[in-house]
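Changelog entry: the Adenylyl-sulfate kinase record was regenerated in this release. Current contents:
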Amino acid sequence: MIKFIFPFDSNISYEQRKEAMIQEPHLIWLTGLSGSGKTTLALRLEHYFFLQGFKVFMLDGDNVRNGLCKDLGFSEEDRKENLRRVGEVAKLMLDAGLTVICSFISPCGEDRMAIKNIVGEDRFIEVYVNCSVEVCEERDVKGLYAKARKGIIPNFTGISAPYDPPVAPKLEVRTDEETIEESMYKIVRLVEPVMHLETQQTHYSI
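Regenerated structure tokens:
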């Protein structure tokens, strides 16, 4: 069926969209164990950048599975498809000029590399939210780790399924050794400088 699909380009260029948004779009990808603080960090980053005037949107694992990916389970194949969809949605949002913050366990390095390839390496910022399993379990307000220990939740990352730590992330924050505020501002110091668009006046004919 794919041979009958004919993609086309918009009359509005990517450069025009960036100038309209006055920012360089980036995907800030937060990866780490359940309970490591990814969602808390993502929410605070979104709020901070919004108050700074950036056009930003957050995508989170639980929210995405409530809509876009609600038809998917937690098999290896479904997890890969879940992240592929997220990557494609993030690309569309980046192409529209937005900055996107994603909070996903994304345990497989191969899947994270696939997302980098989808959105483009120059727009992908991988942040490893590192936190020990022990601390994540202590924070487990949802009771997921307890259920995983009992075998109620199979293939649970960090307990019965592996997590591949990023080999060379743009940044690693240790949320079991520092406050959320300290982790957040480390990310801000890395990301904010590259989000600013080098202003230049360009006139386009219609």
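Helices lie at 14-21, 38-51, 61-64, 76-95, 109-119, 133-138, 144-149, 180-195.
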